[in-house]
Amino acid sequence: MKVFLRDIPPDGLELARHITASDIDLPQDNFTVASPIELVVFLNKVGDEVIGHVEAKGKYIFNCARCLEQTEQVRDDKFEFFVDIDPTTEFVELTSEIREELIIALSSVVLCQKDCRGMCPRCGMNLNKEKCVCK
Ligand SMILES: [Zn+2]
Ligand SMILES: [Zn+2]
Hints:
Structural class: mainly beta
Strand content: 35-45%
Largest sheet: 5 strands, antiparallel
Bound molecules: zinc ion
Oligomer: single chain
């Protein structure tokens, strides 16, 4: 996703895209992207920087951090990035900026429900579903 600086008007540029994980090489280690991510990027040239405001709406499948059950989450992540530019800069490459920020946003701990009871440390039973007999 390359944006040429000459295409960014003084009052900013808004871009809307649907992207998949592979479009931006998003590693899916602790989650799976379940639908295309709706991306809205607003770019602004301010002095010798380009400031990007990003909103990323998507549906993801995580493993619950406590009980390890798969859980689907619809998220609306908002973040900003800054790219330094100099007189020789012709364009900014958004892909890596968006990837890095999304990785940070999506590395947060996810639970299947707020009060997930987790797994019994002894028998491994999912305590949301059943009660085990361990003491
Ligand atoms: Zn859970
Ligand atoms: Zn148990």
